[in-house]
Amino acid sequence: MLLGNSPDVACFAQQEEEAADAWKAKKKVASDTQGSAPFSSPKRKELSGNWLRATAKAHETVQQHVDPWADKCDWDALPAQRAIRHNYDASTRTWARNEELVKVETTAFASGAMRQCFRLKKKSKFVGGGWEKASNYVAKTYLRCSTLQEANRVTLIDVQVQMTAKKYGEEFNRANPPKKVDIMQCFVLELPDQPHQPFYCCERFLEGYFEKFNSNAGFVNDEHKRNTPHAFSHFSYVHSHGRELVCDIQGVDDLYTDPQLHCIDLTKGSDGNLGLKGFALFFHSHECNSVCRLLGLEPFVKYPQHLLPPPTATTSAAVAHDAPAPGLATPADQNRIRGDAGTGTPEYRKNSTNNTIADNFNTHNQNNNI
Q1: Which position among 197, 230, 277, 308 has the lowest Cβ density within 10 Å, counted as fewest Cβ atoms?
Q2: Looking at the whole model, is its pTM more than 0.70?
Q3: What is the largest CA-CA distance in the chain?
């Protein structure tokens, strides 16, 4: 049952206010102490003045900002709920938790084939005011999981994947590309007082023109071809020594959300992890660009098609259900080229064209020790 003005919520709200008051008092003491100390140099005075002007401008921007969700829901009528936030650290591969106070709308504002999205407001411990000042988030839940436990497990994996992609984004930025990238910070939100205790994958509401640059199956947006998103995917493969590849790059400008992660280990990540097949599909359509070259990313040399023997009558008849695209060798021929006939991987046989691409990728890996 949703909580309204229950003692638990009231107690939690009081703790929030006390924490905010303590933080403000500590900030005032630090400000008074810093103000009484003489500046050591004119440069320090200049930096302090710049900081104050930047702070004032940021405050003015916040005050003038119009909440895009103000008229989307009657937030005052919705009850506040206690929530447990689970944060994933991709560097240490550990989870941390803390409590929050949130309001979630009861009807989804958007739905897809797999998930539905709810508007959510989360109060900050350090920003006063009512719920109209609370931060806007999108809370996503799964629709087609067989059990609640399965839905919660997949939600946890989604956050792990996105935060791992964010770690690769930080490494990409350290390489000093022309344009920096970032992946939306996300977390798992558990509502223990709701029936069945569902998990939500939450991230900030992203405003702007949303674009998809590539997919986890080799798609490339030819209408708006940009260098940075594809170079970032290539970088993640090189930086992980060929073990992982961030793809399905989409978002607003270079702020990305909902990426996928291909891994050598098929037990990792979500259902979007296609393993070696995913690597092959990416490099089949990827063309190294100026950003790839600037970062020193070696081009992935595709296996020369003219060196592959044409399909024979016997092999074509034997694998008629898995015939490759015209001009490409059969899986059996690919196996002979690799010297491991009869050890083809079944999961690459779902699509004949993709299967041959994946076999070429395996050949390239073995020949170049990647």
Answers
A1: 197
A2: no
A3: 90
Residue pair 101/9 in contact (Cβ under 8 Å)? The answer is yes
- The CA–CA distances, whole Å, from 32 to 6, 51, 312, 348, 350 equal 39, 16, 85, 67, 68
Confidence (pLDDT) at 250: 94
215: which 2 tokens? Answer: 């997919």
For 340, list phi and psi in degrees, rounded to 5: -130, 50
What is the rounded CA–CA span in Å between residue 31 and residue 56?
15
Which pLDDT does position 15 carry in this prediction?
Answer: 58
| Model pLDDT for residues 311-364, shown as the tens digit of each residue | 554 433 333 333 333 333 333 333 332 333 233 322 322 333 444 444 445 444
How do residues 162-208 score in pLDDT, each as one tens digit?
Answer: 999 999 999 999 999 999 999 999 999 999 888 888 899 999 998 88
Q: How far is CA 196 from the centre of its chain?
A: 27
Backbone region of residue 215 per phi and psi (left: phi > 0; alpha: psi in -120 to 50; beta: other values):
beta
Q: With helix as H, strand as E and coil as C, how does the chain read?
A: CCCCCCHHHHHHHHHHHHHHHHHHHHHHHHHHHHHHCCCCCHHHHHHHHHHHHHHHHHHHHHHHCCCCCCCCCCCCCCCCEEEEEEEEECCCCEEEEEEEEEEECCCCCEECCCEEEEEEEECCCCCCCCHHHCEEEEEEEECCCCCHHHHHHHHHHHHHHHHHHHHHHHHHHHCCCCCCCEECCEEEEECCCCCCCCEEEEEECCCCCEEECECCCCCECCCCCCHHHHHHHHHHHHHCCCCEEEECCEEECCEECCCEEEECCCCCCCCCCCHHHHHHHHHHHCCCCHHHHHCCCCCCCCCCHHHCCCCCHHHHHHCHHHCCCCCCCCHHHHHHHHCCCCCCCHHHHCCHHHHHHHHHHHHHHHHHCC
Q: Are 332 and 317 in contact (CB under 8 A)?
A: no
Q: Which amino acid is at 225?
A: K
